[in-house]
Amino acid sequence: xxxxxxxxxxxxxxxxxxxxxxxxxxxxxxxxxxxxxxxxxxxxxxxxxxxxxxxxxxxxxxxxxxxxxxxxxxxxxxxxxxxxxxxxxxxxxxxxxxxxxxxxxxxxxxxxxxxxxxxxxxxxxxxxxxxxxxxxxxxxxxxxxxxxxxxxxxxxxxxxxxxxxxxxxxxxxxxxxxxxxxxxxxxxxxxxxxxxxxxxxxxxxxxxxxxxxxxxxxxxxxxxxxxxxxxxxxxxxxxxxxxxxxxxxxxxxxxxxxxxxxxxxxxxxxxxxxxxxxxxxxxxxxxxxxxxxxxxxxxxxxxxxxxxxxxxxxxxxxxxxxxxxxxxxxxxxxxxxxxxxxxxxxxxxxxxxxxxxxxxxxxxxxx
Length: 367
Ligand SMILES: Nc1ncnc2c1ncn2[C@@H]1O[C@H](COP(=O)(O)OP(=O)(O)O)[C@@H](O)[C@H]1O
Ligand SMILES: [Mg+2]
What we know:
alpha+beta, Rossmann fold, CATH 2.40.50.140, 6-stranded mixed sheet, 9 helices, 24% helix, binds adenosine-5'-diphosphate, binds magnesium ion
């Protein structure tokens, strides 16, 4: 069993930078946990503390039932894959993959068996005699992963392993690491700044900002129920649209008034929104929850807003519309065959059952 548990873990670097701030995170046995956040938010530092490459300033880390704060990296039974593959240039692929096992004095037969098995899984058997310089980026990355697999660790740690690959190879390796997890059935903590990787690979996602964990949940829960405005804006592409405005009540109905556009709030949200009547608020709507009225039969009139269509971007499978209320710009993702005229008024429909509201001061989700 290899669950990993971080309890109140902080890291303060000499000079006073608090890179990680009281992180509590429980990774279950065999779970694929993705730690995601913008550059500099403390992801690598967190991972390096789990690996034993960085001292912990405060808190405890457990691997399995064992507190590992003072256990050296080599005794933690983990393997780490980095962004820069750090292969030894003068060694062949076989030698690179077997290096750690040779250091541990494993029997030769066992080493050959493990390297062959890993090479098989990764489809790099024919490369075993090559030197790293004779490999493509994707192949080098596979070797780096292979070097970790042969160790048969309790826990894999990945730190942005796909960042150096081109877009197409990234997508391919993403799927392969996913498959690898299903096959190896080990606990993985995977660090990335890429929210698409987080969404597609993680059993659960831990979103981090400024050293603080913001939310830990499965990808769909994070997407549908972000805990605050930061998570709402970070997860999803294009990002959630935000507009500042005010909650108003007229004839027993409650509306969000943006200044130029006004939309009616669904009754399910009334209870949560009522304390904000007359107050400023942040409204959020995802681009896929906005429709061109032309393609909606029977749009409720109070959900229709007139905006200006500034740019039209065909993506092939869909179209992005860059819209402007004259106070806020926002993006709608509409059907591939929609082609509204640019720089003209356009009526769009908000799916008001899908919108989000955030407290303007705390930026916490209201509903
Ligand atoms: N060795 C170090 N000494 C001082 N500050 C550091 C050191 N390593 C990282 N930091 C700082 O800690 C913060 C988090 O860094 P890091 O964990 O690498 O972020 P991420 O991996 O999310 O991009 C950053 O502000 C970074 O500058
Ligand atoms: Mg990093």
